[in-house]
Amino acid sequence: MDGWDQLAAIGDPRAIAARIIQECNTFNLSALRSDPFGTLMRSTEITVTIEAGLVNTGCGGGGYYRPTPPTIHLHPATSRRDNFTLLHELAHHLQQTHDQWGYTLIDMDALIRRKIEEAVCDQFAAQILMPVGVTDRHDVSVHPADVMAGFFARTRASRAAALQRVREMLPQGARWILAVADLDGVVSTSASTYDDPPPPKGFAQEGFRRVAVEAMDAAVRREFHDGIEYRTGAVLDDLRVEAALDCEERYVFLALRPTTTNGSGTWTFPAQECSNPLCEKVFQPLKSSGRCQSCQGFRCPYCHRCSCSAPDRPTTCTSCFVPYTPAEMASGKHECF
């Protein structure tokens, strides 16, 4: 089968996707790279159907492929996200209709087939959207944040796709934590190449906000003493950070690596101080009932308040300067001595 049996035995999605791209003669790959949506909409071989109410199937993130007739059902998101989804679903079509690889897929166990077919689809989309140059291969081990920003600037790929492309380009054994955050430090996507976990998505990192401010002026290369905070209250420290602002100046690409000799960050578990001025007790996060969904602050195990539920009126009488009691704070009544 001209090497397809060997590719199937090895099971390397990158190599399989590269071979499918090499043998593809039904689509203009340059056109797919520059305008995936327009190219596929004009195609006579496959139909793209836009369905705003499409339920997320988990395949490609925002769509799915049906072979009869060949159709990509797209749940539209942002244009860059749609580009990856469309190429991912196109790869299902190219794999299943390939005169050799298609039969190899049919002979596979269903679970194994799904796993490898999905992985090949991701690789196909990544390789079409973000071809890797010699400079990229050299820089990725040294300045992965710059490479992520470069992919986003010169291609039609999303920020998340750029991060995943860099993650899979990093050499085996490399220890990097990759993230994309908005200018307020809120993480939109992240990944780790080793045991230390990535920063949680949708969670604001004060350290990332400070790095984003610096990145507005120039690329960042420095030690990162703020640490990465996790929802449990744990903080990962002893890291270096590099960061590059995206070309739209709306998000920052970050890459962090450990500075310790054992190649891992240092875990700390800082105590929290209650934000209620009538309480102000110090407690360990594990004693809290959890974070508030609004302010993300830990609820105090003593007064059961967080920062957004703490009283905002004065805590001391402006006439007699005597602190209000909890009962007086609750009732709003106070009599001076």
Automatic annotation (TrEMBL):
<feature type="domain" description="IrrE N-terminal-like">
    <location>
        <begin position="64"/>
        <end position="131"/>
    </location>
</feature>
<dbReference type="InterPro" id="IPR010359">
    <property type="entry name" value="IrrE_HExxH"/>
</dbReference>
<dbReference type="Pfam" id="PF06114">
    <property type="entry name" value="Peptidase_M78"/>
</dbReference>
<protein>
    <submittedName>
        <fullName>ImmA/IrrE family metallo-endopeptidase</fullName>
    </submittedName>
</protein>
